[in-house]
Amino acid sequence: xxxxxxxxxxxxxxxxxxxxxxxxxxxxxxxxxxxxxxxxxxxxxxxxxxxxxxxxxxxxxxxxxxxxxxxxxxxxxxxxxxxxxxxxxxxxxxxxxxxxxxxxxxxxxxxxxxxxxxxxxxxxxxxxxxxxxxxxxxxxxxxxxxxxxxxxxxxxxxxxxxxxxxxxxxxxxxxxxxxxxxxxxxxxxxxxxxxxxxxxxxxxxxxxxxxxxxxxxx
Length: 218
Description:
By secondary structure, this protein is an alpha+beta fold. The protein contains nine helices and four strands.
């Protein structure tokens, strides 16, 4: 497995996937673990992931690659797997109770008082975003982006190519999968697989601002 520095220098946004190469079941299970075990503020876990690993599933997600986003269609259809990233738009009381009971089942609390403290604390911080900052949906989507970044690094360490895409007509995908009725909406997708020999972007050097520009000492 690559070191983090090696992985970050090796990876790039893949533009052209080899449609004949598939990610192994073992490797993809590791990628699923990244998504499943991802951190989130107050453990809110607002995500839902739709995985397409066959032509039919990828075609459903590709319905969002239309109009100005047509250039993303082949990235979806030719890759091995696509992960659609969805976020909750509202964390209702029922969902908060579901989180709490799962934490209790997993042994997070020593007693009932500790369990109740967690519940009240989560409601407090959620309330700040819902009533004070008025950004509940946006705040939850930011938690989902954490998992997208982690997936890119994990894939690179396994030698799996990837490209993140916001360039989708999310209304089309939400409609295709009935997400709004379930309280979710699409924020983007990541295509995963192996680069084609024809991918022009594979040979281009990375371009980043110099470290002295982006880092400073406190």
